[in-house]
Automatic annotation (TrEMBL):
This is Isoprenyl transferase. The lineage of its organism: Bacteria, Bacillati, Actinomycetota, Actinomycetes, Micrococcales. The keyword Magnesium applies. Mg(2+) binds at residues 45, 233. GO terms for biological process: polyprenol biosynthetic process. Pfam families: Prenyltransf. Catalyzes the condensation of isopentenyl diphosphate (IPP) with allylic pyrophosphates generating different type of terpenoids.
């Protein structure tokens, strides 16, 4: 996002069904293939508000949101995205009502296991699994291990994740590594640079996200990929996550392709 330009809220246009399909196909065909982001981060926001709009409990929204994930990953594969990062549970979410949190964690665990069971995507679990119930952490690790040899779209599952928490974890990992080598703090301080942090992030070895999408109309990152999103483009969609459509995804890609990415140069 260029300087002095505020993020743009994206209105949702409801087209008659026949026109919708035609519009979606034309939109997909118009995307320049050399301007597809390699890595897309998605903040899956609005499940509870979606459920509330129907007079349903929060768990209903969380389940519908979980069902939407496979669609998003399929759309990403179709256009050639290489990495998708899904923010499914933040460290802030862990302070929610215990009953709702237990249901949410159970839904997320089932969703991640289902993604692994397809054998289509290579999963990487991002976050501090120590903050989760032991059985949940074990299921997450097992899902990641089952997909270790999958070739194709890489899917980062951010669970128990916070951007500040990730950076703190990266620094701790860096300090432990150098302590094991016998490096003194003075020596480390003299050679330390930003690359050292990048090597210890949850996303190490992956490209930084070029595009970050947040649903539900909220216009903030909330701590998502704080380090990695330094040069990301942001797209804020009005739709709640369970209502997010392929056309919304394509519009986000179109917006990304139309931007001039100077990256500070």
């Amino acid at each position: 996002m260029s300087a002095c330009r505020l993020p743009r809220k994206v209105s949702r246009v409801r087209l008659p069904h026949p026109l919708y399909g035609l519009y979606e196909r034309r939109l997909a065909a118009s995307l320049p293939r050399d301007a597809i982001p390699r890595h897309v981060g998605v903040i899956l926001d609005g499940n509870r508000r979606w459920a509330r709009s129907f007079g349903e409990p929060a768990s209903h929204g969380h389940r519908r949101g979980a069902d939407k994930i496979t669609e998003l990953l399929t759309w990403s594969e179709e256009v050639g995205v290489e990495v998708v990062t899904l923010w499914m549970l933040s460290t802030d979410n862990l302070a929610r009502d215990p009953e709702e949190l237990a249901e949410l964690v159970s839904i997320i665990t089932d969703a991640v296991c289902s993604l692994a069971d397809t054998g289509r995507w290579r999963l990487r679990v991002m976050g501090d699994l120590r903050l989760l119930p032991a059985e949940t952490a074990q299921a997450m690790r097992a899902a990641q291990e089952r997909t270790r040899d999958v070739v194709g779209l890489h899917v980062n599952v951010a669970v128990g994740y916070g951007g500040r928490h990730e950076i703190a974890d990266a620094v701790r990992s860096l300090l432990r590594e150098h302590a094991a080598r016998g490096t003194s703090l003075v020596e480390l301080a003299e050679t330390f640079d930003v690359a050292h942090i990048a090597e210890h992030l949850y996303t190490k070895g992956q490209p930084d996200p070029e595009l970050v999408i947040r649903t539900s109309g909220e216009q903030r990152l909330g701590g998502f990929l704080l380090w990695q999103s330094a040069h990301s483009e942001f797209y804020f969609c009005e739709a709640y996550w369970p209502d997010f459509r392929r056309v919304d995804f394509l519009r986000a890609l179109r917006s990304f392709a139309a931007r001039e990415r100077r990256l500070g140069r």
